[in-house]
Amino acid sequence: MDYSWRNLNNIYQHVLKLGMLSPPEDVIASWLLFSSKPKIENFLELGSYLGGGIGIFNQALNETGHKDVKFTGVDHLSFIGAKAANTSGAWYTDHFNRCLSTEEIKSLTKLSTPNDMSAWIKERCERLTETPLSVTSVLSEKEAGTQQYDIIHHDYGDGVDENLNTIRNCVPMLKDNGIYIVDDWCTGAPLRTWATVLAQQEGLLYPIMWGKNKVFFAKSAEVAKQTVSQLCANPEYNGKLFKFMSGSDYFGSGYTTIRMHWQAMQWS
Ligand SMILES: C[S@@+](CC[C@H](N)C(=O)[O-])C[C@H]1O[C@@H](n2cnc3c(N)ncnc32)[C@H](O)[C@@H]1O
């Protein structure tokens, strides 16, 4: 699968099929990041859901030279059996119908443990991406802290306190040169957006790149600056689609951030 901006429409279809809850432009930004980093071994997905995101990230990592990445997926799995119990929001049912086959929906209702979920995600992702996947599921972020991660993808949480707590809990699980990606950084999760601003003021997060919905952070200014240099040195870096943000020296002298020009990506 070509994960560059040259293949935006096909990536969009692939994202829909896998059931990843993300715009394809953000997958392209992630792919650019992955292909700019020397070594990625451990990935924490906060909100693993159906594993669509894990499957796509795994495939994009594999194709950018990061083989055998170990994924840990955190999810309280309340959506398992939600349709039968008629508890969780209808969007799960609608989305299940959009991306899962009748067989897959049926098998999902039989799952009851995190291990069941790992096996279900692994089988489905490997079938749809033709890429080997290593994934371990846990029910809460507290259970994920037994190791250090190269990438953390924060994709749950509504309120400011809830999201700030997740950031405070999980930034210490990030390796010094790791990347913390926050999803729905805009109208999708406005109070999560607010929490990242407070986290920046606490010195926990330093912005690197602004995607469409995902924003990429480091845990130090040095790593943020180094990562911007690595992105720009990547032969796949396209200055028309990834632009420098003037005013970034707000975060420190000599500081630069990049914003993805996702509209230009759609036009091209
Ligand atoms: C937006 S979905 C994640 C989508 C996924 N990252 C993807 O791109 O395919 C959010 C998930 O987080 C889970 N979740 C929400 N709050 C949680 C919490 N505090 N702890 C664990 N899981 C949670 C929900 O069950 C849901 O499956």
Short description:
By secondary structure, the protein is an alpha/beta fold. It contains eleven helices and nine strands.
Count of DSSP E strands?
9
| Largest pleated sheet | 9 strands, mixed
Could you tell me which ligands this complex binds, including any ions or cofactors? S-adenosylmethionine
Write out the strand line-up for the largest beta sheet, numbering strands in chain order.
3-2-1-4-5-7-6-9-8
The shape, in one word, is globular
The percent range for helix content is 40-55%
Could you give the order of the helices and strands? HHEHEHHHHEEHEHEEHEEH
Structure classification: alpha/beta
Q: What do the pLDDT scores average to?
A: 94
**Could you tell me the radius of gyration in angstroms?**
18 Å
**How much of the residues is beta strand, in percent?**
15-25%
**What ranges have pLDDT less than 50 throughout 5 or more consecutive residues?**
none
Q: Can you count the helices?
A: 11
Distance between the termini: 19 Å
Topology of this protein?
Layout: H1 8-18, H2 24-34, E1 42-46, H3 52-63, E2 70-74, H4 82-85, H5 90-99, H6 102-109, H7 114-129, E3 134-138, E4 149-154, H8 160-170, E5 174-182, H9 190-201, E6 206-210, E7 215-218, H10 221-233, E8 242-245, E9 257-260, H11 262-267
Parallel strand pairs: 1-2, 1-4, 2-3, 4-5, 6-9
Antiparallel strand pairs: 5-7, 6-7, 8-9
Bound molecules: S-adenosylmethionine.
